[in-house]
Amino acid sequence: MTVELVRVDDAFHFEALGTSNVTQHIDAATDIGGHNAGARPMEMLLMGLAGCSAIDVILILQKQKQVIEDFKLSVDGFREKGATPAPFQQIHITYRLKGELNPERVKRAIDLSMDKYCSATAQLRPSATITYSFEINDEVYA
Questions:
Q1: Measured between alpha carbons, how far is 122 from 113 in angstroms, rounded to an integer?
Q2: Could you tell me the pTM of the whole model?
Q3: pLDDT along the chain (142 residues), means of 10
Q4: What's the distance, Cα to Cα, between the start and end of the chain in Å?
């Protein structure tokens, strides 16, 4: 896997291009001279975790013949304030699904993603405690 990063302006705006050939914009916060023209690098790590697990969970539920009408996921990452570097220490993922879904099968799909399939989880887990909860048709499961 290769990623190319090209500087766009005279500050911190970059275009990143990977093997998927889709451009992503990266930028820094305005308080250090960025222009909010892209995601922050640490946000992209959480986005990668979200995408990796979402793909796993959807594939597993499809194989189980579960009917997914809607799927959303949010990730909250917590870092030590004022530390340099400041890796994520705690990450919580909330899965929100709608459809004809068995809660035990959803939990099993998430567990498989977290413990076996998601490479992003494996990458982040040595420095962060990763937890999750899920909702099915607005009913919350821990």
A1: 10
A2: 0.93
A3: 96 97 97 97 97 98 98 97 94 98 98 98 96 97 86
A4: 35
